[in-house]
């Protein structure tokens, strides 16, 4: 009991300290305010729209949506696309990050630029470039098969989101102490052995979080599938079409919540 | 701390007052509008309107399906006063949900019954027909001529080559679907569309996307409105040719309406009147739309509705039963 009241006093002291720093205190309030107005409140509204029918709590929207093949297929399509993009994107990001932090390769600056550059352009610009290059009348028409669908989406989203994995992983790899590797090599371990028993296990938490980041981004991506999905429908576009095309806020919100579920799970993993 | 709060409060207060000042001095308030025309085209008409009336306009461009969704979501607190453009089926659908406000425009000619709601909840200010737009290089390569009928579209040569908009996102897509329903009846129309679906490469959200895509050779045939085909395809120099189905084709009436709960009622009425004036209707030829004012001049090369075989298009029924027809389409086609 005494312990608790002591910590409460500490807490109060900390709050007092915070108030004595008005600039910091106001910024925190502003950020909280923005977060509530622009993130939490809208999500809550979407949540409410999907669960309420004529002011009553109901699961009817979910039942309706989960019964139709044209809503379920996009859900699975989205998740499949996310799995593929996250895996390839993390691999590409890791190769870049490893090459830049761990090898004596030349031109690291250029490779770092290449690895982060796609972040600058919105994904749909990459999608348009993809059409102009690999589309039916593009310069390299047919080079990677039919780009409208899973293939094109995978290529474009991997290019667009590998930088996220790269940025996460480069931080992780840089933080691994090189003296561990040197010690292992001194003891006669091969490079492969060093990689598989030291670097990879140490980087694994980073790899997992990079993978989850890319997975979330791919799931939430709207611009690329809007342009490139062809007949491979994904949930983000379906939710949008449901709201804009059918005037159907309730089901659109339901789809949006369904999209939110795997994203939130991945975020908290 | 108190002083900081006081200063912040004062700054906010004076900022609000500064913002509020100029608006109070104007005679007309700024007209808020949702435009279901392409941005460039909407801008062209709206600038002309601003010049001739002196009323300032702020508009947001959306597809007509999006406008419908938006005004339904905002019905307790409407953000715009006018819905400008977009297929009248969408206006009729919104009107049947009680989202629009009646206004009979002041015109110097008689508005035909197909061009307005019985209570003038929406008014039609231009027309256009559904047609096919075909890439000429594709035709040359396969040594065929452009499709001349709906039946031609089922030819296996077009496998994965036809594009159009989703019937549930675009007025264009829905008009094409409604045409088939009126021609064959709902059940046969669904059967027929399943055959057509094999030849469809993809459905797009926007009604005009397929035109440029056919022009670029990303697909062979697009199904769209004649005025869009002329303005965005043939007229832009793409290797495209326009044709019309011999069985008869559907047409759209472009609607303009006032949104229920509009805040700028007077300005909205002036705008709607202006849409039917000879001055405004003459502007339509730049985008190959067919004017409804008989005094307006028609664009050269643009077709007239009287030149093509039209079905007896029942826009009112198609608008009121849109949800039913679209759901039937989705249940069968699964997209």
The major beta sheet of chain A can be summarized as: 2 strands, antiparallel
Rounded Rg of chain B:
22 Å
Biggest sheet of chain B, open or closed, and with what strands and sense?
11 strands, mixed
User: How many separate domains of chain A?
Assistant: 2
- The helix/strand order of chain B is HEHEHEHEEHEHHEHEHEEHHEHH
Strand order of the largest sheet of chain A: 1-2
Fold-level CATH name of the largest domain in chain A: MetI-like fold
Give the proportion of residues in helices of chain B: 40-55%
The secondary structure category of chain B is alpha/beta
For the record, what CATH class of the largest domain in chain A applies?
A: Mainly Alpha
Reported CATH architecture of the largest domain in chain A:
Orthogonal Bundle
Give the CATH H-level superfamily of the largest domain in chain A.
MetI-like
Low-confidence stretches of chain A: none
* Beta fraction of chain A: under 5%
Number of strands of chain A: 2
Task: Describe the model.
The complex is a heterodimer of chains A (269) and B (335). Chain A is 80% helix and 1% strand. Chain A has 269 residues and is mainly alpha-helical. The mean pLDDT of chain A is 87. Chain A has a two-stranded antiparallel ribbon. Chain A has helices at 2-20, 22-51, 60-67, 69-102, 108-116, 123-134, 150-175, 178-186, 191-220, 223-228, 235-246, 249-268, and strands at residues 52-53, 56-57. The two termini of chain A are 34 Å apart. In chain A, strand 1 and strand 2 form a beta hairpin. Chain A folds into 2 domains: 2-50; 63-268, MetI-like (MetI-like fold). Chain B is α/β, with parallel strands linked by helices. Helices cover 43% and strands 18% of the residues of chain B. Chain B has helices at residues 2-25, 39-53, 64-73, 88-96, 136-142, 171-184, 186-199, 209-216, 226-232, 265-275, 278-283, 315-320, 322-333, and strands spanning 31-35, 57-61, 82-87, 100-101, 122-135, 162-165, 200-204, 221-225, 240-243, 251-259, 290-291. In chain B, strands 1, 2, 3, 4, 5, 6, 7, 8, 9, 10 and 11 form an 11-stranded mixed beta sheet that branches. In chain B, helix 3 packs parallel to helix 4. The model of chain B is unreliable at 20-26 (pLDDT under 50). The chains are: A mainly alpha (269), B alpha/beta (335). Chain A binds chain B through residues 19, 22, 26, 68-70, 73, 131, 135-137, 148, 226, 229-231, 233, 240-241, 243-249, and chain B through 1, 4, 8, 62-63, 65-66, 68-69, 72-73, 93-94, 97, 166, 168-170, 201-202, 205, 216-219, 323, 326, 330-331, 334-335.
């Amino acid at each position: 009991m005494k312990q608790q009241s002591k910590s409460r006093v500490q807490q109060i002291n900390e709050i007092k300290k915070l108030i004595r720093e008005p600039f910091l205190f106001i910024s925190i309030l502003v950020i909280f305010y923005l977060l509530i107005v622009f993130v939490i409140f809208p999500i809550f509204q979407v949540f409410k729209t999907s669960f309420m029918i004529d002011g009553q709590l109901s699961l009817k929207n979910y039942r309706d949506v989960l019964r139709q093949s044209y809503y379920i297929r996009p859900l699975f399509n989205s998740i499949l696309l996310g799995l593929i993009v996250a895996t390839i994107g993390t691999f590409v990001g890791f190769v870049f990050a490893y090459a830049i932090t761990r090898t004596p390769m030349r031109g690291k600056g250029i490779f770092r630029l290449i690895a982060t550059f796609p972040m600058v352009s919105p994904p749909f610009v990459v999608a348009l470039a993809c059409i102009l290059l690999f589309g039916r009348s593009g310069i390299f028409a047919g080079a990677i098969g039919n780009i409208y669908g899973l293939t094109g989406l995978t290529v474009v989203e991997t290019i667009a989101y590998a930088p996220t994995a790269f940025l996460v992983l480069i931080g992780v790899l840089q933080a691994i102490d090189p003296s561990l590797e040197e010690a292992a090599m001194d003891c006669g371990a091969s490079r492969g052995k060093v990689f598989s028993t030291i670097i990879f296990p140490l980087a694994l938490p980073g790899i997992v979080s990079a993978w989850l980041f890319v997975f979330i981004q791919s799931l939430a991506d709207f611009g690329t599938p809007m342009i490139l999905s062809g007949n491979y429908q994904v949930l983000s576009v379906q939710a949008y079409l449901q709201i804009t095309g059918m005037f159907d806020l309730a089901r659109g919100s339901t789809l949006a919540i369904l999209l939110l579920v795997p994203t939130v799970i991945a975020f908290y993993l | 701390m108190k002083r900081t709060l006081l200063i912040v409060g004062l700054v906010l207060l004076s900022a609000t007052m500064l913002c509020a000042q100029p608006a109070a001095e104007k005679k007309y308030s700024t007209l808020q509008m949702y435009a279901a025309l392409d941005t460039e085209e909407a801008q062209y008409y709206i600038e002309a309107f601003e010049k001739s009336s002196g009323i300032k306009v702020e508009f947001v461009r959306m597809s007509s399906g999006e406008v419908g969704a938006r005004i339904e979501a905002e019905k307790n607190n409407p953000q715009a006063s006018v819905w400008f453009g977009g297929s009248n089926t969408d206006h009729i659908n919104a009107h049947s949900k009680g989202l629009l406000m009646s206004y009979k425009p002041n015109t110097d000619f008689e508005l035909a019954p197909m061009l307005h709601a019985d209570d003038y909840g929406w008014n039609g200010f231009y027309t256009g027909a559904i047609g096919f737009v075909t890439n000429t290089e594709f035709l040359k390569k396969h040594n065929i001529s452009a499709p001349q009928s709906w039946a031609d579209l089922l030819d296996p040569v077009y496998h994965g080559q036809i594009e159009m908009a989703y019937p549930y996102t675009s007025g264009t897509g829905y008009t094409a679907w409604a045409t088939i329903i009126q021609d064959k009846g709902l059940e046969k129309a669904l059967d027929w569309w399943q055959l057509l679906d094999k030849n469809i490469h993809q459905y797009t959200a926007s009604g005009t996307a397929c035109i440029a895509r056919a022009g670029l050779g990303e697909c062979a045939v697009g199904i769209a409105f004649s005025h869009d085909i002329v303005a965005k395809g043939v007229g832009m120099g793409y290797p495209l040719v326009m044709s019309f189905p011999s069985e008869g084709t559907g047409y759209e009436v472009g609607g303009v309406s006032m949104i229920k709960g509009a805040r700028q009622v007077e300005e909205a009425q002036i705008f709607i009147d202006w849409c039917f004036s000879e001055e405004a209707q003459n502007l339509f030829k730049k985008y190959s739309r067919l004017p409804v004012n008989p005094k307006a001049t028609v664009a050269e090369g643009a077709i007239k509705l009287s030149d093509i075989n039209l079905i007896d298009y029942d826009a009112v029924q198609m608008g009121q039963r849109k949800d039913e027809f679209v759901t039937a389409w989705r249940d069968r086609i699964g997209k």
